[in-house]
Amino acid sequence: MKPHEALAEAWEEALEGLVLHENRQVVYLNPKAAQLLGVNRERVVGRPLLLALRDHRLEALALHGGERLLEVRGLWLRAKALPGRLYLLDESEAKRRLRALEEATQTLAHELRTPLSGMGPLLEVLTPKTPQEKEVLALLKAEVARLAQLVEALSPIRPGPRRPVALAELWPRLEGLLRERLRGRKVEVALPHTFLTDPESLLQILLNLLDNALKYGQDPIRLVSREEGGKGLVEVWDAGPPLPDYEALFLPGKRGSVEVKGQGLGLYLVRRLAQALGGEAYARREGEANVFGVRLPLD
């Protein structure tokens, strides 16, 4: 069997969907793509791309490139577009498991909140009598504070009122909060847009995204905003090396490097905040840069 014949046979049996297109016309789609899209491939080959995809978001992605996780007719599809090619992977089961995990963590956070809220005041009234007791008490207070922060991150998120937010106005606050991490780093900021959103939730998103890049990425780092498809995008670009699994970094407890201290909740919280604001969080490799961002409604 010739190599191109073996490749064609492999795509016919693949578990990932593939759609090939040219001049907005479908050239080929494999059986898995036909299954995921719910179409008869014999009827759509040679026809307009939208007829096969049946979703304007997928069509825009196929034509302009990029990668997104989209809910399409009851399925969660990871769609990646390269010139003339659209790859589709069904992540519905992974999404279901993640939702179950989030529900379990929120239940755990609820159960821990009450005892933790009582431990802090009890520790405050204790008076250490020796240097050793003072050291132990300080460690206990720090651990209770850490657990309280963890519980807060895992609790249900309720954004505040939405209002027009000029993104550039958030930069001075971000700069103040990250002053130590920013010292000596090369960070470019371009935030010309205004979003209708909760400013505090958006600030937390930007804080976590930028903090993540400063911890794990490499200079130069860029914090930018743009509009695309009627949505507002805020992204942090860094020149770090390619990562093996971008999606996994949004799971609780996952970190970009075991050498950097942290609880692995920054990007997890970014995704939950973005979803609470009616948007989504994403990450991808773009040329020589890692890109982490959120896509939010403009109105």
Give your account of this protein's structure:
- This protein has 299 residues and is an alpha+beta fold.
- The protein has three domains: 88 residues, 2-Layer Sandwich (Beta-Lactamase); 62 residues, no CATH class; 135 residues, Histidine kinase-like ATPase, C-terminal domain (Heat Shock Protein 90).
- It is 44% helix and 25% strand.
- The chain has eleven helices and twelve strands.
- The strands form three sheets. A five-stranded antiparallel β-sheet has the order 2-1-5-4-3, sandwiched between helices. The chain has a five-stranded mixed β-sheet with strand order 7-9-10-12-11.
- It is elongated and about 80 Å long.
Specify the CATH homologous superfamily of the largest domain. Histidine kinase-like ATPase, C-terminal domain
Total domain count: 3
CATH architecture of the largest domain: 2-Layer Sandwich
Helix count, DSSP H or I runs of 4 or more residues? 11
Rg from Cα: 23 Å
What's the order of the H and E elements? HEEHHHHEEEHHEHHEEHEEHEE
Report the portion of residues in β strands.
Answer: 25-35%
Uncertain stretches: 258-262
What is the strand tally? 12
Read across the widest sheet, the strand sequence of neighbours is: 2-1-5-4-3
Q: Give the CA-CA distance, first to last residue.
A: 56 Å
Helix fraction, binned, reads 40-55%
CATH topology of the largest domain: Heat Shock Protein 90
Average pLDDT rating: 86
Derived structural class:
alpha+beta
Domain PAS: 18-53
EC number: 2.7.13.3
Keywords: ATP-binding, Kinase, Membrane, Nucleotide-binding, Phosphoprotein, Transferase, Transmembrane, Transmembrane helix, Two-component regulatory system
Domain Histidine kinase: 107-299
